[in-house]
Amino acid sequence: MATTNAPKTLEDLKSKLQNDIKVKVAGIDVDGVLRGKFMSKDKFISAATGDGFGFCSVIFGWDIHDAVYPNELLISNRANGYKDLAAVIDLSTYRRIPWENNVPFFLVSFLDPDTKEPICADPRGVLKTVVQKGESLGFQCYAGCEYEYFQFEETPKTLAEKKFLNLKPLTSGMHGYSLLRPQLNNDYFTDLFDETDKFDVQLEGHHTETGPGVYETALAYTSALRMADNAILFKFSAKSLGMKHGIVPSFMAKPWGNLPGCSGHIHVSIRNAQGKNIFAVRDSELKSGREGAAYNDTKFLSQEGEWFLAGLLEGLPDIMPFLVPTINGYKRLVGGEAFWAPNAVTFGYDSRSASIRIISPPSVPLTATRMEIRVPGADMNPYFAMSAIFALGMRGIEKKLKLPCPPISHVSPEDRKTGKVQMLPTSLEAATERMMRADSIAREVLGNDLVDHFGGTRQHEVNLWNEAVTNWEVERYLELA
């Protein structure tokens, strides 16, 4: 789905840019960070009408802080001299950045310069491939995303000066859904809604969440690729507008040990070629539910919806790094149900304690039937997360999988001990090892090249963590050990 004002022809593009001298472009790395630059209008138009432009492949060869990966990964390495990739401009993503003097902005995808095939680790390319597979099956993938994020009354400079310690929250106390707290920073709070709308990133809801300086923002439901674009651009918007107001929003999953973490919940559904939600039951089944449903919790899900759910549940433990890609993200899940951060293979009707929440009648209209995947944190890469979710779900439909477990909302200590409930990996190291197994479902649905490359980047992250000496260790052991 294109943005509302995307150019349709070369002449239309030139017309839209006639008063500009430069254009901003960006692609997405494996950590979900936008990497881009300004281009002259003439250079941009030449690239847009040709095979794209050269972009250094180190975008996939370094980590979130630009440290080059020590391992020779598939895309970018010393052996090939970090040669250029082909960055292909997606004209359908056209919008203007209102807080940067309305400069034109476009997203790019990355291709191999020799074969012209998509780069296996390019997040946009991966999701495009999954969406296209869905289209070949007659499916249209739709999604929504909700972000929770802390705000700090800091700047990038003060963060560095304070060494990221003793940071000042934007507001104090626990004030979820407050009508008072936003008035303390009203210009910033309303800018997040109003400026993103001008940026063609539509929001559905925006409010304070429980915790000091925490907001939650729900992005408007749309096609999956557009949703992932909007999710990554919302983060860019929040961080940019935050700098304008002397505020740093953080999408770190668990910035405080004793407070709830920040989620990145993803809502998903599939429509057929006629635009009908295939997860929804027939109108005639609205009163009593679908005959033959596996459980009462799924009686208002169609058979295809139940198969999709089964695919998600079966593959969930194998794709965890695509949902929770950081060391810190697993600390959000440690609290489990206490902080509504589920860490088990569970589902339930309208259950916020389960990993997959079924949202269907009677709580919502028939057309709004969907599933909410509650495992990801706000630090997820939305392209990879949605790719894994839809790939697993469509596998479930293709294989007509049965649900592997009954609905469970509450997981007791006894359930964990007896193995009644399958627990999810509790660390990035364990999750990466499981994902990279030879018989991993992640390999089946997303391919060996992506799993090997992305898995290598996660192993790098684990190695850095294992080598780090933290303040907690110094305080605990320096004097008394």
Salient structural properties:
eight-stranded mixed sheet; 481 residues; 15 helices; Gln_synth_cat_dom; Ubiquitin-like (UB roll); Creatine Kinase, Chain A, domain 2; globular; Glutamine synthetase; alpha+beta; ligase; five-stranded mixed sheet
Summarize this structure briefly.
The protein is an alpha+beta fold. It has 15 helices and 13 strands.
What does this structure look like?
- The chain has 481 residues and is α+β, with helices and mostly antiparallel strands.
- The protein has two domains: 10-119, Ubiquitin-like (UB roll) (Roll); 140-470, Glutamine synthetase/guanido kinase, catalytic domain (Creatine Kinase, Chain A, domain 2, 2-Layer Sandwich).
- Helix content is 33%, strand content 19%.
- It has helices at residues 10-16, 41-49, 123-136, 156-161, 186-198, 224-244, 303-315, 320-323, 329-334, 382-399, 413-418, 428-435, 441-446, 448-467, 471-477; strands at 22-28, 34-40, 53-56, 84-97, 103-111, 140-152, 203-208, 214-223, 248-250, 266-271, 347-349, 356-359, 370-373.
- The strands form two sheets. Strands 6, 7, 8, 9, 10, 11, 12 and 13 form an eight-stranded mixed β-sheet that branches. A five-stranded mixed β-sheet has the order 2-1-5-4-3.
- Helix 5 packs antiparallel against helix 6.
- The mean pLDDT is 94.
